[in-house]
Write a structure and sequence with these properties.
ABC2_TM, transmembrane, transmembrane helix, two-stranded antiparallel sheet, abc type-2 transporter like fold, 2 domains, alpha/beta, ABC transporter permease
Length: 365
């Protein structure tokens, strides 16, 4: 092991000890994300007992209208009317518990005789009790309608099948967002404040006077933030999985690789701010000016689908959007890195931009 490597490892070890001796840093990087995660976890677990039903009505008959009205009158059901494709997608994501499809010939007659038709239902295999209970209600409604058809054998039927779904909920959506927020704040605030404080106290200038190359000090600081980010990700994943049933559908390796990309981007922003600012009073306004819009407009706490088109287009290109979107795609849909070309390219472009700016602005004094 050469001298440079030993210096780097020694600086990294010392920086890591300094970081965790700071109680504020522990609260900022670990306790606040865990507290937010707990809050959203308890809120998302408060879903009521109503069964979420996706209804597709392909028929135009009076009997079909009666069936729909009967479904909507069931207090235990929350009915969402949707196309068959949309309802199937919602069932696959776990957004609904049951999909009901009314066929086109439901309630029709031929030569004065009712046509046989079958209502198809698909239920979430992960919630069999809800599916079976809903099917029992639907069978009762169909049986009641069937009895209204006089002088005819049974012509209305229900066919049901279970579907394996991801059972993802709002908590599965929010955890990657909270982690993205933690990565951003650790990168921007963690670096900017500490480096400016060392710059103002003359510590950076004194480091330049030692035999250790200053660049190794910078690398050591970046490595510490990287290790803290990965440890935070592990803690949030374990906490979310154990207490709130978080579902990881994709690869943990890919998930952590995106975390690394994210912290590198926001470390670059932090270094750029630290290079420009002369003292700590200049850091907070600039850091907040950058992170607050990203926090509110990058889809961390809610989907950006409700944004105006122009705003959604602009926020599509924010670094936090790329990071949070990639983490969600991996965690919620099992996507691989090759399936996220725009996110990976976007993060790569931001890496180049932020470090070009950081190198231009960074000063040791």
């Amino acid at each position: 092991m050469n001298q440079n490597t030993r210096s780097f490892l020694a600086l990294t070890k010392a920086s890591l000890k300094m970081y965790y001796r700071n109680k504020g840093a522990i609260i900022f990087t670990l306790l606040i994300p865990v507290a937010l995660l707990s809050m959203f976890g308890f809120l998302s677990s408060g879903r009521g007992p109503r069964i979420q039903v996706g209804l597709t009505n392909k028929a135009t008959t009076e009997m079909a209208q009666q069936f729909v009205a009967a479904l909507k009158s069931v207090e235990a059901f929350n009915i969402r009317e949707a196309t068959e494709t949309d309802a199937a997608t919602e069932l696959g994501k776990g957004d609904i518990d049951l999909q009901v499809i009314i066929p086109e010939n439901f309630g029709k007659t031929e030569e004065g005789k009712p046509t046989a038709s079958t209502i198809q239902t698909r239920f979430n295999k992960g919630k069999p009790q809800s599916g079976h209970m809903a099917n029992m209600v639907i069978v009762q409604i169909v049986t009641g309608l069937d009895k209204k058809v006089t002088n005819a054998p049974t012509v209305l039927d229900v066919k049901s099948e279970g579907v394996a779904v991801n059972n993802l909920g709002y908590f599965d959506f929010i955890l990657p967002g909270i982690l993205s927020m933690s990565i951003m704040q650790l990168g921007i605030f963690g670096v900017a404040f500490s480096f400016v404080a060392m710059k103002a106290s003359g510590a950076l200038r004194r480091i330049q006077a030692t035999p250790v190359k200053p660049v190794y000090f910078v690398f050591a600081q970046a490595t510490v933030r990287l290790l803290v980010t990965l440890s935070t990700a592990v803690i949030l994943l374990v906490f979310g999985t154990y207490f709130f049933g978080f579902h990881m559908m994709g690869s943990y390796v890919n998930f952590f690789l995106v975390c690394i990309f994210g912290i590198l981007i926001f470390l670059g922003i932090g270094f750029a701010i630290a290079g420009w600012a002369r003292d700590e009073t200049q850091v907070a306004p600039v850091a907040n000016l950058i992170q607050l819009p990203l926090l509110l407009l990058s889809g961390i706490f809610f989907s950006r689908d409700g944004f105006p088109t122009w705003l959604k287009t602009i926020t599509d290109y924010s670094p936090l959007t790329y990071v949070s979107h990639a983490l969600r795609k991996i965690a919620n849909e099992g996507a691989g890195l090759t399936e996220l070309p725009m996110d990976m390219i976007g993060m790569g472009v931001w890496l180049i931009i932020v470090y070009a700016v950081a190198v231009k602005l960074f000063r040791w004094e």
